[in-house]
Amino acid sequence: MTGKPQVRFQRANFIVSDIERALTFYRDVLGFEVTFQKGHNPDSYSFPVFEIPKEAEIGFCILSAPDQPRVMALSEVKNVELAPVPFPRRSAIVLETADPDAVMAGARALGLHVYEEGKLVTHDGRTGREIGIVDFDGNLVVIYLL
Question: What CATH number is associated with residue 109?
Answer without folding.
Answer: 3.10.180.10
